[in-house]
Amino acid sequence: MNKVNLVNILIDSLGNRMPKACKLFAVLVTVEANCTVTEPKVASNVNVCNSDDPKVRLLCCKKPLEEAFETGKRVIVSECVNGDWTNEKKNCSAPVGNDFSIQDCGPYAIPAPTGSTLSYNLTAGTTNTHFAVVHKCTGQKIWISGKTMGGLAQCINGTWTPITDSCMEDCNPVVRDCSEIVQYSNVSGFFTVAPDGSTTSNCVLVWCDLADSKYPGGGGWTLLMKAVAGNTVFQNLSAESYREPINAPEDDNYFLGFNTLLKMNWNGSSIQRPLVLQIIMTRGGYLYEASYDNFVINPDFSLLSVGKAFGSAWNYLDDHVGYPFRKPENKSAWWAPTDPVLLERAYANWTWLTDPGLRWKFWSTEAITSVKIRFRPLSYDRVVSCPFGVDMSGKSAYYPLERVPGKRFTFSCWEPFHSMKGPGGVLYTSGTVDCLPGPAGGSYPTWNETLNLPCELNCPASFIKSSYQESCYNFTNSAQLKFGFVSGALTCAKMNASMAFIGNVVEFGSATWELLTILLIITEVEAISPTRSQRS
């Protein structure tokens, strides 16, 4: 049974006890109504602790004050999935070494999660030692995480485990994307949402990266796409195929579908709802990120805008702005030019993340092994993170993988003779900027200093800057060079420069063409360093 069917089963099975609007964004519950046998077949040292729910059982050890499951769990959940009970083969054991310890946590005294009430305690021994408690949602509410036992807490290693779930108290407003799930849960997982925010919208299953996500950047992210290098899932699909979901969110290669993305990207047919798009790539064992603060697609799925960029992976998506999403012959579908000559150049040198090679423009010396693309509304991002406001074009900074308060942005001009202008016009080559929380009263998070990026070329004394702002030139009268070319090369070496090749007179601006030219060439060098990124 696939996930789509499970969503349909959930909505149908809850029909008699949920208001109509709730059916639209009830979370995924992978539990069937009937199993082939009424009880799980458990090990000899395991008991079934409850029997009041036909679709789920709590399993506990027969000697709960002496034994536990792996990692010290006192109870585990067994659900009826695809006609069979899960976790039937789990065993209990006594602690060995420092694996875990069995200690008394005392009575459970933490208030019940929102919208729930304490259902029952699990105790053992003559002193009725508490080792697990279960809360259930009241009335017609359900756990927002989709877990049947979202209200389970147990005593592990002497401490009660927290309950991070809550019950939905109201069916309005409809949950539109993962940025609205955060008010109910901070545990990442599968959720169903109404993409256009309407109670008449069709539900869509999405994956939400919330506060506990292993990827940095905070919560509220809706997964758009993920892929691993070498996959051929997207290679031969038509552009039209991307209208609907490609695979399921739990698969290694997945795409949400443009129809759903478009509903989340627009309010109705005429008002844009800008999204913050975050592209996270694994390369050489490190994470690199490129985020954009005004991602908008047109109704025909062409790329309308990406906005400002931020991140350690640099800005390699804006080349595609204005182009349709199409599948050129013998290529995978992407935002691509229609002009044949430009198309070939774009495919060879630009970003193409649906390609099996997961190409990110000039990144060819070390392959990207995986990519994950996710988004959240700009209106939400602005409340929880520092703004973008950083020009990426200089490729001049070591970017943190998130912009939340407490994070530090470290910038460094690593190209020779590049610097930034500080207060009073002072040139400096490195520094730090901190993301600060907004002061009390509702202000948004902000950087503690304005960045004057990108780094710009500042030529040494006696050199002039080219009109293209990429090179520095020094002119020497040929009469001063006694041995011609050899003297010129030696003179250049003393200046830490190299002989110039005269390719375009325009580059010299007003400089005298007749003089022998000595050129310091500042080339763009891709500088990849582990200090610029975070391990995956």
Descriptive report:
- The structure is a single chain.
- This protein is mainly beta and 536 residues long.
- The protein has four domains: 31-160, no CATH class; 178-381, Alpha-Beta Complex (Gamma Fibrinogen, Chain A, domain 1); 393-454, no CATH class; 464-521, no CATH class.
- Helix content is 10%, strand content 28%.
- The chain is built from seven helices and 33 strands.
- The strands form eight sheets. Strands 9, 10, 11, 12, 15, 16, 17, 18, 21 and 33 form a ten-stranded antiparallel sheet that branches. A four-stranded antiparallel sheet has the order 1-2-3-4, with no helix packed on it.
- Strand 5 and strand 6 (129-137) form a beta hairpin.
- The longest helix is centred in the N-terminal third of the chain and has 11 residues, at 3-13.
- The chain starts with a helix and ends with a strand.
- The relative contact order is 0.08.
- Residues 1-33, 391-396 and 511-536 have low confidence and may be disordered.
Strand content: 25-35%
- Whole-number total of structural domains: 4
What percent of residues adopt helix (DSSP H or I)? 10-25%
**Can you say what the CATH homologous superfamily of the largest domain is?**
Gamma Fibrinogen, chain A, domain 1
- Number of strand segments: 33
List low-pLDDT spans: 1-33, 391-396, 511-536
- CATH class of the largest domain equals Alpha Beta
The largest sheet, given as strand count, sense and whether it forms a barrel, is: 10 strands, antiparallel
The tally of helices reads 7
Round the Cα radius of gyration to an integer and report it: 30 Å
The secondary-structure class comes to: mainly beta
**Annotated CATH topology of the largest domain:** Gamma Fibrinogen, Chain A, domain 1
